[in-house]
Write a structure and sequence with these properties.
single chain; 759 residues; alpha+beta; Aldehyde Oxidoreductase, domain 4; 3 domains; 7-stranded mixed beta sheet; 6-stranded mixed beta sheet; globular; disordered N terminus
Length: 759
Amino acid sequence: MKLFKPKKDAISLSRRDFLVGSASSGLLMAFAPTLVSANISATESLSSKRFSPTIWFEINEHGYVTINVAKVEMGQHIGSALARIVAEELECDWSKVSINYVNTDPKWGYMVTGGSWSVFHSFKPLSQAGAAGRIAMIEAGAKLLGVPSQNCRAENGFVIAGAKRIDYGDIVSNSALDRTFTAEEISNMPIKPSGKRHLLGKSYKALDIPPKTNGTAVYGIDVEVEGMVYARPVLPPTRYHSRVKKVDDSACKSIPGYAGYHVLTDPSGTCEGWITVVANDYYSAVKAADKLKVDYEPGPSISVSEQDILNEGERLCRDSKEGHLFVDDGNIDAVANAAAHVLESTFTTATVNHFQLEPLNAVVEFKDTKWHVHTGNQWQSLTLPMLAKAVGVSEENVVIHHHYLGGGFGRRLYGDWIVPALLTSKIINKPVKLIFTRPDDTAFDQSRSPSTAVLKAFFDKNNQFTGLEHSFSAGWPTAAMAPGFMSETIEGQGKVDMFSASGADHWYTMEHHRARAIQNGIAQDTFTPGWLRSVGQGWIAWGLESFIDEIAHQTNQDPLQFRLSLLDGKGKQAGKAPESVGGATRLRNVLSLLAEKVKDIELANDEGIGFSVTAGQERTMPAWIATAAHVHVNRKTGKITLKRLYATVDGGIIVHPDGALAQLEGSLLWGASIALHESNSYEKGKPKALNLHTYHPLRMNDLPELDIEFVDSDEFPVGLGEPGVIGVAPAVANAVYHAAGIRLRSLPMTSKDVKAALA
């Protein structure tokens, strides 16, 4: 597989001026490079292709505001949240705000929607841009009102001075605005304190709800272009290194609409051994692909099983020479040598797949010297170089047109599914709409890798906990798809996938703590390991938070109180501004609040409550969450019933309360699904379960009740799309121990596991 190192973001908003200028369409507000000459006005700059300003928002003569969004919408209402940030500071009329999702263009800078980063990364620059726009409107409005600007304020789309007022539309119609704010002025622009906000944190309906409910929203799978034909891929037996030896399409020729097949040669290395079947309609393409007979020479992973991957993971974890140090505090070797007692546990997780609602799809056409791609893609700046390589053009000659995503969850970050559509269109010189069936989608999925973790806790002669050693292994998504984002190791002798290591650098105070991240080469060679909602935290915290309970019981302490004692916020756990002010003390706070909430719950026989604490996907953007699970264990059948999930959350400023609640609800239920229900296994090069009749995520009749509480906070807002997943599995396992006295250390936790542990 060809690995692409993404370009660094060439356009940083911190190095750009902010321009406010009149144009034929109204008032444009844009970021532009600071190289703009002082002799050129803001209006001239906005109309100059030479400076390529990034038009963030605009106001027309009627006061309507359009906010351009360089993120993609996949159910999280991100456009509304970002628009709300601008509108709060711009002081425009929210009822006149609309959003526009932009296509790929270098002027927008690096484009990615993932990692729960969107609000976190956008809050400050968009707030300050909105504030600059407000200042420009006040200055222009003051002139029209004939009053000093310091006597004016902006409110709900008006500039007001005592009894006088003028709305933004009239200002745009009657003023020739021409204002430049330097990058330094923008970076020093104050953001409203909580007491003055009237939009952020208030309930409102997302702007994209109407099109999603009236059927006008266009998803990638809805797109059609003139003259297009349909294609379906025929996948090889292994993800890598399979080769087509012979093809027989005689059975396909009786299908009306069948237009042939094509063996793909892919310069990007994405589609090794791939064939596409082309037809005049989708159903003919599906039928023909099923009837095509292909003789392959399979790749070496044809013999790999799920158990092979897990066995390799455990071997790697037990070999102290493997992997890279991710945390190395104190002297764990000295602690281990002096230990009077050692507690050791091994935790595993099975393959998990995305199964997003909308199967992979892309429409591709060559028009006006460029390749135009219509799809839903989360990481355009990572995908573009691969697409350009596949068809042998420069990146400027490929344009990705954004459409709504019917679910992303990390699967649509790396747009590998677009490549076969591009190659097929190039071969036949026609627009192509390629759609994966659900089994195709699953066979080509970037699965969450099976994982193995070995944890050791050391105790002195008084049975006091003295140190923790944590080794963990899985396939690494970033190594496969974005090696340019790999991070240097602390020993300086290699690189580590932070997405597959974060979480091991927890917020507990431990004098002696070592964590070792290890790439599982068998997993890496069998499939493309994927970024799946919460990524490595989803399996790293599973072992860690379960093991924290085991340590507490070993020392005869209540697990809740043991956690509180370790969350003292000392040293490196104090956090830092702006993203982690308060550090571990904020985790201790949410855990204390949650403990108070559940302390009086009456438990029936074979019921228990378990806890976990997690801090989001990464230390550089922590979302402080305490989770509690209330379960019942049926000792006869082994069934674990998850009755209720509790989550107390400190996510800083909550920009969109309804969206934040929906994100937590969805992520908690996803965590419950992975904890108790869903799994897959690799056999003969592919996932065994290819559709939802054999892959079993959480069903409606197993939904737990949810109790979610947000802590009022004025700290920096952080992402909430993924963190809720992380703490569910360990909380459930700890609750099972409370209910039945058994330790479960493999995900998913099945009735078979329970009965075996009780036997």
